[in-house]
Design brief:
14 helices; about 0% strand; disordered N terminus; disordered C terminus
């Protein structure tokens, strides 16, 4: 009898222990989900701030006497030393060696870095001739290129909401394109304006290819995509892009002309230096956000965040640089915000469709071990 009672007690305790383990697993998963959301929010904020402050500081440089396009493109990735501290802190935790970058991945990141450097030069060259409000709208066309290349490279699936978002955000760009004829800055010839227009669209197309290429690199790697690995990949990409632009600066003689340009900067040497430093910081935040958001969500979502930041950039350009804010720009702002809201609603709708239904809790005491086991099965759904 004692042996039988002990056997029954062990059977009764097993489900309770299993339920406790499931509950602990559920709590752990909840904490991981919270960390994931917080990290995603930080990356979105970095991407939003970088995609707004970077162009503003770059245009500020050109408006007040700066003229070195290779220097401007160099600044877009020259903030890579900011990655050293988070990498050092990550290495102190002694991560698994298998999570580090491989030679094949290193070479892939070098290739992406060179493409990024070329894209930076196209953007800097175009922005030197165009008002920021116009250049920002042209850059918004990258979302269409991102969607197309994401479909080809990573087989991106589109919901009706994401398609609607792409159409609205692209329409906001097209709408402003009809108003560009009256936006030519003083001192810029018609030919220079056309060159700036074409190069900016080229920069949008090239970066629309680079972002899905980053996502493809994540998918092709056979290693776990950890925080350390993402930082290493971004570090290699930024250094490669900076090296590419450094060669351009050396050929163009930009390093020798820096002192002379600082002397002639309208706001003085200190403001010149601060503009360069903060431009490098802002653009590095941009790339941190791109790598993080692409890893955690998708390249398409990165493109949406960049596109939705453009109206804010336009408003700030009007306020800070006294650029015209026409009715077309106001309508483009509304379309961009509408497109972003459509994308967010689509993501929320998909989340509701994929979320498992809630299972009601059972409070009654089970009458047998089999019923007890059945009662503790839905603990994961708490």
């Amino acid at each position: 009898m004692a042996g039988s009672a002990l056997f029954e007690m062990e059977n009764m305790e097993a489900p309770a222990n299993t339920g406790g383990e499931l509950l602990r697993s559920h709590v752990t998963n909840t904490k991981k989900s919270l960390r994931h959301r917080v990290l995603l929010l930080l990356n979105v904020l970095a991407l939003g701030m970088g995609s707004t402050a970077g162009p503003l500081l770059t245009r500020f440089y050109f408006l007040h006497g700066g003229s070195k396009r290779w220097l401007s493109s160099w600044l877009e990735t020259a903030g890579w030393p900011l990655l050293i501290l988070p990498l050092y802190l990550s290495y102190r935790k002694k991560p698994n060696r298998e999570n580090h970058i491989t030679l094949k991945l290193f070479l892939a990141c070098c290739g992406i870095g060179i493409l990024t450097g070329a894209d930076d030069f196209l953007y800097a060259y175009g922005l030197s001739f165009l008002p920021l409000s116009t250049a920002s709208v042209l850059i918004a066309s990258h979302l269409g290129f991102t969607a197309g290349f994401a479909f080809l490279l990573v087989k991106q699936k589109f919901s009706p909401f994401s398609v609607n978002s792409i159409v609205l955000l692209t329409a906001s760009s097209v709408l402003l394109a009809f108003h560009t004829s009256g936006d030519r800055p003083l001192g810029v010839t018609s030919r220079q304006y056309v060159v700036g227009f074409v190069l900016t669209v080229g920069a949008a197309a090239l970066y629309g290819f680079v972002i899905p290429l980053i996502e493809l690199t994540y998918k092709k790697t056979k290693r776990p995509i950890t925080y350390t690995l993402v930082m290493e990949m971004q570090f290699v990409m930024s250094v490669s892009a900076t090296a590419f632009c450094t060669v351009g600066m050396l050929i163009n003689g930009d390093f020798q002309a820096l002192h002379r340009e600082a002397e002639g900067f309208r706001l003085g040497k200190i403001d010149y230096s601060m503009a360069l430093v903060w431009a490098a910081v802002a653009w590095q935040l941009f790339f941190i956000g791109v790598f993080g958001v692409t890893r955690m969500v998708s390249s398409l979502f990165s493109g949406v965040i960049i596109a939705v930041a453009i109206p804010g950039t336009e408003v700030l350009a009007v306020v800070l640089f006294d650029e015209n804010f026409s009715a077309e720009k106001g309508m483009a702002l509304v379309l961009a915000l509408w497109g972003f809201a459509s994308y967010l609603y689509g993501e929320y709708y998909c989340y509701l469709q994929l979320r498992p239904p809630n299972v009601p809790k059972q409070h009654n005491m089970p009458e047998s071990p089999s019923e007890a086991a059945h009662t503790h099965q839905p603990v994961n759904d708490l």
